[in-house]
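Closing statement on the iron/sulfur cluster sub-project.
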Amino acid sequence: MIQKRYKLRFSDDNLQESVAYILVSKFNIQPNILRAEVRDDGGVMVLEMKGTQENIDASVVYLSDAGISIRAFDKQIIKNQDACVDCGACISVCPTRCFTPDPETWEIVLNYEKCIACGTCLNACPFHALSLPL
Ligand code: SF4
Ligand code: SF4
């Protein structure tokens, strides 16, 4: 089993496709929708797929053939150190515990390797110090 992250872009025409259902039923993939945004021209989703390489590859081809733009997503959260005041508001909202206070300086340290790009912390920061461009 491997795990890969993709950015999917939907048009108005295929916005209603039940991607998660299709991936589970057709390709035995465990999908995890990390982030989803509806836009004027359709929608964007960050999707994590867990499965065999073969099944993930087949899923990518299927979604692409269905008219959904799909490409690997390897972006991570960006922390603007100048804007951060180390308030700690981001610590509790992060599902993978990326933020920890340095025990000596009390600076909030971000562990980029643990970030799954879910975007949950974006709205938690009162100082807009966090960003994750889609
Ligand atoms: S994007 Fe998600 S995983 Fe990454 S730091 Fe923010 S809350 Fe944590
Ligand atoms: S919520 Fe924002 S300002 Fe507060 S510690 Fe986290 S990144 Fe820094």
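The CA atoms of residues 98 and 114 lie 6 Å apart. With this model delivered, the sub-project is considered complete and its resources will be redirected to Aim 3.
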